[in-house]
From TrEMBL:
<dbReference type="Pfam" id="PF01134">
    <property type="entry name" value="GIDA"/>
</dbReference>
<keyword id="KW-0489">Methyltransferase</keyword>
<dbReference type="InterPro" id="IPR036188">
    <property type="entry name" value="FAD/NAD-bd_sf"/>
</dbReference>
<protein>
    <recommendedName>
        <fullName>Methylenetetrahydrofolate--tRNA-(uracil-5-)-methyltransferase TrmFO</fullName>
        <ecNumber>2.1.1.74</ecNumber>
    </recommendedName>
</protein>
<keyword id="KW-0285">Flavoprotein</keyword>
<feature type="binding site">
    <location>
        <begin position="10"/>
        <end position="15"/>
    </location>
    <ligand>
        <name>FAD</name>
    </ligand>
</feature>
<keyword id="KW-0963">Cytoplasm</keyword>
<dbReference type="InterPro" id="IPR004417">
    <property type="entry name" value="TrmFO"/>
</dbReference>
<comment type="similarity">
    <text>Belongs to the MnmG family. TrmFO subfamily.</text>
</comment>
<dbReference type="InterPro" id="IPR040131">
    <property type="entry name" value="MnmG_N"/>
</dbReference>
<keyword id="KW-0808">Transferase</keyword>
<keyword id="KW-0819">tRNA processing</keyword>
<keyword id="KW-0274">FAD</keyword>
<dbReference type="InterPro" id="IPR002218">
    <property type="entry name" value="MnmG-rel"/>
</dbReference>
<keyword id="KW-0521">NADP</keyword>
<keyword id="KW-0520">NAD</keyword>
<comment type="function">
    <text>Catalyzes the folate-dependent formation of 5-methyl-uridine at position 54 (M-5-U54) in all tRNAs.</text>
</comment>
Length: 448
């Protein structure tokens, strides 16, 4: 091991982005990935940056949405994850959705093409005592490594549970019942305006569906595990348990849609499917993360009008997601306070979402490379989306109640002179994004 080599553990969103950024700054990188030697239940391929949950990066609006702003900042920083997303984009209304297989293949090919990145396969189960390391092991951190982190930090691992949604073969969907339309016809092109498939439900169908959902066999947790979910990825049965109309005001809301087959009929609820690959042969059921057992899933989901004969390319599932109490453990450079040669990035640090994970990988890669090269990078401006996130996880959040967090404007410092409330929201968000863009460009210019 040479002192100037950066080791990155984990080839997911954060690890891939960290490797890309560090390598482009001129640092030699060793990317450690345990797959395929050590498999996980959620991964289907050996590619880097495989998407195991949704295929959506959410809103791409960089003026009125915090995650869209994060997209913009990553693009400005030559981000690999955003480059792959843009190259493998699918119609999704105002959202940024991708062909998940092509997306991961693109990332893998780009990383393998760089001469100063070497890939080593195998599990890293301990925290190294020397060298420069970034741990970006994501939601599926191995039990052995999780125990090593817990032993080093002197705290129990924190965990919550993520569920993944099922994927349906397009040719098994009944298009005499289902119609293509994005909510409120959102999108600049015809493909965007028809990016979702919609399955309408009458009140009786909805009530029967809720009854079946609540009665279905669910995955049981092991002794000692508690089902603490991240609110942005709740299983549908957990939402249904909160009230019979919860789904109808959530992922199954019928607003902004007109049934092309029966324009005068107002659906009581609507299930949406989003294209999952460029060929249009696969669709995922939007917001339908689930912990139902496989047999129950096929029975319940075939109650959805238009999916009576559905064939599933993948059924839903649930997995444990490990994250650290970062506000107490990491410094502002994402280094472990007790072992500053170790950095952490991605979901293990307590950010939630593909984009947020990749963004923390981007920063960790740049910060680690700068340290190796003897460069003195200025602090990431707190008024940027990147800065708001890193500030939150490394000290801005309340440690006692720390939970995984998506990027949102609630993490941003107020802009003086702007009114609060819903009426002032559009101007306020535009002010946030304008301020962030200027600060981010300034930081990038100082950092190169």
């Amino acid at each position: 091991m040479t002192d100037k080599t950066l080791h990155i553990v984990g080839g997911g969103m954060a690890g891939s982005e960290a490797a890309w950024q560090a390598a482009h700054m001129g640092v030699d990188v060793v990317l450690h990935e345990m797959r395929p030697k050590v498999e996980t239940f959620a991964h289907q391929t050996d590619d880097f940056a495989e998407m195991v949950c949704s295929n959506s990066f959410r809103s791409d609006d960089d003026e009125q949405n915090a995650v869209g702003l994060l997209h913009w900042e990553m693009r400005q920083a030559n981000g690999l994850i955003m480059s792959s997303a843009d190259h493998n984009r699918l119609p999704a209304g105002g959202a940024l959705a991708v062909d998940r297989d092509a997306f991961a293949q693109y990332v893998t090919e780009k990383l393998r093409a760089l001469p100063n990145i070497r890939v080593e396969y195998g599990e890293i189960s301990d925290l190294p005592t020397d060298g420069h390391w970034i741990f970006a092991t994501g939601p599926l951190t191995s039990p052995a490594l999780g125990d090593a982190i817990a032993n080093e930090t002197g705290t129990d691992r924190l965990a919550f549970f993520d569920a993944i949604a099922p994927i349906v073969y397009a040719d098994s969907i009944d298009m005499d019942v289902v119609w293509a339309q994005s909510r409120y016809d959102k999108g600049d092109t015809e493909d965007e305006r028809r990016a979702y498939l919609n399955c309408p439900m009458t009140r009786d169908q909805y009530e029967a569906f809720i009854d079946a959902l609540l009665a279905a066999d669910k995955t049981e947790f092991h002794e000692g595990e508690t089902a603490t979910y991240f609110d942005g990825c709740l299983p549908i049965e957990v939402m249904a348990e909160r009230g019979r109309d919860t789904l109808r005001f959530g992922p199954m809301k019928p607003v902004g849609l007109t049934n092309a087959h029966k324009p005068d009929d107002k659906p009581y609820a609507v299930v949406q499917l989003r294209r999952d690959n460029a060929l249009g042969t696969l669709y995922n059921i939007v917001g339908f993360q689930t912990k139902m057992k496989y047999g129950a899933q096929t029975d319940v989901f075939r109650m959805i009008p238009g999916l009576e004969n559905a064939s599933f390319a993948r059924l839903g599932g649930i997995h444990r997601n490990t994250f650290m109490n970062s506000p107490t453990l990491l410094d502002s450079q994402m280094r472990l306070k007790s072992r500053p040669n170790l950095r952490f990035a991605g979901q293990v640090t307590g950010v939630e979402g593909y984009v947020e994970s990749a963004a923390m990988g981007l920063l960790a890669g740049r910060l680690a490379a700068a340290e190796l090269l003897g460069l003195d990078l200025p602090d990431v401006p707190q008024d940027t989306a990147m800065g708001a996130l890193i500030h939150h996880i490394t000290g801005g959040a309340e440690a006692k109640s720390f939970q995984p967090m998506n990027v949102n404007f609630g993490l941003f410092r107020p802009v003086d002179g702007l009114k609060g409330g819903r009426r002032g929201r559009k101007d306020r968000y535009k002010a946030y994004t304008d301020r962030a863009k200027a600060a981010w460009i300034d930081w990038l210019e100082q950092s190169t």
